[in-house]
Amino acid sequence: MNNDIFPCLWYDGDGKESAEFYCKVFGGTITADTPVVLNIDLFGQKLMLLNGGPQFEKNASVSFMVMCETEDEVQKYWDQLEEGGIALMPLDSYPWSKKYGWIRDKFGVTWQVYLGEKQNDQKIVPTLMFIHQNNGKAMEAMELYTHIFPNSQIGGVLKYGDGVGDENHEVPENVQHAHFEINGYSIFCMDNSYDHKFDFNEGISMVVMTDDQEETDHLWNSLTADGGRESMCGWLKDKFGFSWQIVPKKLIQLMSDPDQEKAQKVVQAMMKMQKIVIKDLEEAYNS
Length: 287
Prior knowledge:
This protein is α+β, with helices and mostly antiparallel strands. The protein contains seven helices and 16 strands. The chain has two domains: 57-191, Signal recognition particle alu RNA binding heterodimer, srp9/1, CATH 3.30.720; 211-286, 2,3-Dihydroxybiphenyl 1,2-Dioxygenase, domain 1 (Roll), CATH 3.10.180. Strands 2-3-4-1-13-16-15-14 form an eight-stranded mixed sheet. It has an eight-stranded mixed sheet with strand order 6-7-8-5-9-12-11-10, covered by helices on one side. A hairpin with a 2-residue loop joins strand 6 and strand 7 (97-104). The longest helix has 12 residues, at 15-26. The protein is globular, with a radius of gyration of 19 Å. This is VOC family protein.
């Protein structure tokens, strides 16, 4: 499992409560516990929870598909996620799954609990919904991402015209459901023409941990190209408005230094950066 790529969920102070909730629901563990950043391990996969403040709200443009092997397993997760949550598609039998439901939990994170075949050993799969100005661009996005990242491929693609039933009059060549991998990490995506009241934002982003400056530059330049935009502290938006954090492993190493003063200098240097520049961090560390 590639744990150098993982989702980040934005919270307004309730990250710890949420981390404990997911660890209870899915049988996971909290692996990092600070006031701002919490990391949890669910089924060997990393998720980061960030207490960032009130600026961004998580929404269903990015949901999490939970691949279940039995109906009992679907029911078990659903019953717990339902507590204080809202069902977006009721737990039922659908053409694509004998037992499936889509729910927004009490923390604003949306889950698709699904009985079906796993593509690989990744149990939780982020699912990107291409809506509004992005509707019809799921295929283009998959081609872009698999071109940028190594060890990438596009898997199965089901189009609305392929006859699984479509009551919303979607464009036949648009993507109803597709699977792709970036550097071994699985992601699903879909086009949707419904006029949702939300879209991609910083509430849910994808973190990529890089080995060196060359990899950092490549990902940063490729993802911000052609209409993307740079933000602060390693954050960027790609041309579809989806948020990424490109984070050199060296940054985490230096920030975690037992020498508080040195670690603090690194943090201060990082706060002034858009793209993270490793040599500038090292200079701050050694200053």
